[in-house]
Amino acid sequence: MESTDPQPPQFLRSLLSRYSDENPKMSRPYVTLTFAQSVDAKIAGKEGKQLILSGKESMVMTHWMRTMHDAILIGIGTASNDNPQLNTRHLPSRPSNPAKNGHDNPYHLPRPIILDSTLRLSPNCRLLDNYKKGLGRRPWVFCSKLGDDEGNREWMERKQLLEEAGASVITTPTASERHDDNLKLSAVLEYLHEHQIRSLMVEGGARVIRSFFAEESMVDTIIVTIAPTFVGDEGVGYNVGLDQVYRRAF
C-alpha cells in the first residue's frame, strides 16, 4: 500500500515539531521510541520471530516518521531476524533528488544505526545492499570496545568484512567492564549528537526497548501501535509496565 497524502499526518507534525528546535542543554538527540505490540504486550513471536502487527495505516505512519528523523536505531536481534530496509517504500511516488538527499530515494532517509556489540551483522544484509545501490544511507554499527583488540582475530575479520560492505563500525563503552553485550546507551547517544544527529527514531526490538526504558530521561516521545492480536506466552515482550513508561518518559 502507498499513501496518497503528499505530507506527514498533522498529528505527527504537531507531535514532533519541537525536534526542529536546537536545545543547547541537550547532549543527546531527541528520541522517539516507537513499536507495535499485541494486546498482550508482545512485539515478536517465539525466539524473536517477526510478527506482522502493523496494519496498512500504521505502516504508512511509520514510514512518514522515518522521514522526520535524522537517524533510526535498531538492535542486532531485529537486524538479524527481520533483515529490514528501514526505507520509505509505502510513501507516495515523487522524483528523486540525489543532490539533496545523497541517495536515489525521493525522501529523506534516516541514518541506520545498529547496536551490535559483537559484530554479528551480516555483510549481505539489506541495509548495506541498499547503501551500495544508492538507495539508502551508510549504516553506522556500534560495537563493544572490549572486542577492539588486535589479538581478537575473529572480531577484526568481522569488522573488516562489514567495513568492506560499506558499514561504518564504531566502538563504544559497555554498561559493564566485565561484559561486552550491553552497550552504554548514553555513550551512543552522545556520539550521535556530536555527529549532528539531532533526532533519533528507535524501532526496537525488545531488548533495545527495555534498555531505553531502563535509563532515566532518555525518551522524549513514545508512539505505540496496538494490534487486535493475542500472541501468548511464547511471544517476546519488552517487560515494562505502563507505570514505568509514564514515570520514566515524562
Structure description:
This protein is of the alpha/beta class. The protein has one domain: Dihydrofolate Reductase, subunit A (3-Layer(aba) Sandwich). The protein is built from nine helices and nine strands. It has helices spanning 10-15, 56-67, 76-82, 98-101, 126-132, 153-164, 185-194, 206-214, 242-249, and strands at 30-37, 42-44, 71-75, 111-115, 140-144, 168-172, 199-204, 221-226, 236-237. The strands form two sheets. The protein has a seven-stranded parallel β-sheet, sandwiched between helices. The longest helix is centred in the N-terminal third of the chain and has 12 residues, at 56-67. It comes from Moniliophthora roreri (strain MCA 2997) (Cocoa frosty pod rot fungus). Pathway: Cofactor biosynthesis; riboflavin biosynthesis. InterPro entries: DHFR-like_dom_sf, RibDG_C, Riboflavin_Biosynth_HTPR.
Strand-helix topology:
Elements: H1 10-15, E1 30-37, E2 42-44, H2 56-67, E3 71-75, H3 76-82, H4 98-101, E4 111-115, H5 126-132, E5 140-144, H6 153-164, E6 168-172, H7 185-194, E7 199-204, H8 206-214, E8 221-226, E9 236-237, H9 242-249
Note the gap between the termini. 34 Å
Order of helices and strands: HEEHEHHEHEHEHEHEEH
Q: What is the subunit arrangement here?
A: single chain
Runs in which pLDDT lies below 50 for 5 or more consecutive residues are 241-250
How many individual domains?
1
Q: What is the CATH architecture annotation?
A: 3-Layer(aba) Sandwich
Q: Give the % helix.
A: 25-40%
Radius of gyration: 18 Å
